[in-house]
Amino acid sequence: MMKPVPRLRVIISATFVFCLFVVFQIYKSDLFEKNYQITHQVNNIFISIASSSHHQTPNLTKYSNESDGNRAKPPEDLEETDTCAGRYIYMHNLPSIFNDDIIKNCRALNKWFNMCPFMVNSGLGPQVLEYDNKTSQVLTTKTGSWYSTNQFLLSVIFRERMKHYECLTNDSSLASAIYVPYYAGFDVSRHLWGYNTTVRDALATKLAKWLRERPEWRKLHGRDHFFVTGRIGWDFRRCWDEEWGSNLMCSPEFSNTTMLSIETTAWTNEFAVPYPTYFHPESLTEVRRWQRKVKRVKRRHLFCFVGAPRPKQDGSIRGEIIKQCLASQGVCKFLNCNEPGNDCDNPVKIMDVFKSSVFCLQPPGDSYTRRSIFDSILAGCIPVFFHPGSAYNQYMWYFPKDYTKYSVYIPESGVKNGTVSIRELLGRIGEESVSRMRKEVVKIIPKIIYTKPGLVRPENKVVKIIPKKVYTKPELVGLEKIEDAFDIAVGKVIERVAMVKRMMEEGKDLHSEYSQTRDLKKLE
């Protein structure tokens, strides 16, 4: 009998040690899918080694990159798990009159300016191109993730994101919540001026009838339904003898639903979500790169204000803010949006002002909130609020409960009567406090952006979605997951619907969750 070849012993020993190491790594990691791929490939290496020892040609099997798309089967003793359980969303397939047909006539959507240029790129608007050094200095334009996004396009952006939601289902019985892709904001905006209330309410009335006839509606009478609008909640609350807005949220059907809007009006079934910003990244790497950029930037001005005076608006403090800013001798930067040439729809100009300022003043405008709040946070600028209804009682899903962590609050009364010097007050805040607040502001950035929908991803970048029934959580292959404003909103809606279902099972009164009584204290 021939003695064993020493070299073969070494190979066998090394293989055994390497196998133990791989098993340890699989046990250590909680991403089975990834480790299964490693295990499969390692097994093939072992096979090839064994084959080589018998002078056979190796036969390395590919894992999931085969042209037929077949995956290697996991061990039979492992149960497959549905990682979308409790996260499924069903989207109603509405007739096009409730969404696409509305925006086809984009010229009629707003009386005061043309919305058509902003409809491109799935509602993100025209892409910001790097046409000079200033653009590249202010933004990270090489990523292709900056767009001239209009604040009213949220419903379009949200719908496009939902089309690519990893847990979207066509089986409503699986759904934890049901999304209604109705462009309510554009429906009302095209009829706000020059139309009577009958015309203004007509399409919403048709939609209510359409929903009533659906089996998905009858299950909970709409309490698991939600929709999104790019206008403030007040535009849908013409519940009394008034002229402004529609009566959408006063109807029996929609009073049972949950509305997500850019500003809430203190009813219990309304929730505020961020205005769209100009930044729509597709990877966490992009977000982190931008966060580092705004952390390092040198800020020339102590504070700034971007906006226009409101001389005809009773109680507006903008006039006093502008007065103090202009008297600051360059400590404050004022971009007057009423002056010709100060294009306040230009992302580069807006972000340049915010990035060069330590604090950004955010007084109320036509309503409590402003899109500027989110643009300034995106720039790493610490927001200064003058009314709690501008942020603290609005975006509770997105901002820290302790508002002192990320912002400064100056009561309106002190500014109105001239007893508060904004320059002196902000100047007394120490560098350590400023640094701490800025870190918190920068941490908020991923939560208040809407990432790029699938349809506007570059054509040469292949993005694969892992199937829902897998052995790891769904994620974009090759891309890091960002929990953005969309994801947070969907998650919170699902939590709300689950709570309502529990209340119904326990026989509790749902009045507190769908009250038609406005609680103004929520905005104070």
Architecture overview:
InterPro entries: Exostosin (IPR004263), Exostosin_GT47 (IPR040911). GO terms for molecular function: glycosyltransferase activity. It is a single-pass type II membrane protein. By secondary structure, the chain is of the alpha/beta class. The protein folds into three domains: 1-62; 91-276 and 487-523, no CATH class; 290-448, Glycogen Phosphorylase B (Rossmann fold). It contains 16 helices and 13 strands. It has helices at 6-28, 32-53, 100-104, 133-138, 154-163, 184-189, 197-212, 215-220, 284-296, 318-326, 347-355, 372-378, 412-416, 422-427, 431-444, 485-505, and strands at 81-82, 89-91, 168-169, 177-179, 225-232, 258-263, 270-272, 301-307, 332-336, 357-362, 382-385, 408-409, 469-470. The strands form three sheets. Strands 3-2-4-5-6-7 form a six-stranded parallel β-sheet. The chain has a five-stranded parallel β-sheet with strand order 9-8-10-11-12, with helices on both faces. Helix 12 (372-378) links the parallel strand 10 and strand 11 (382-385). Helix 1 packs antiparallel against helix 2 (32-53). The protein is globular and about 65 Å long. Mean pLDDT is 83; it is low at 1-5, 26-75 and 458-478.
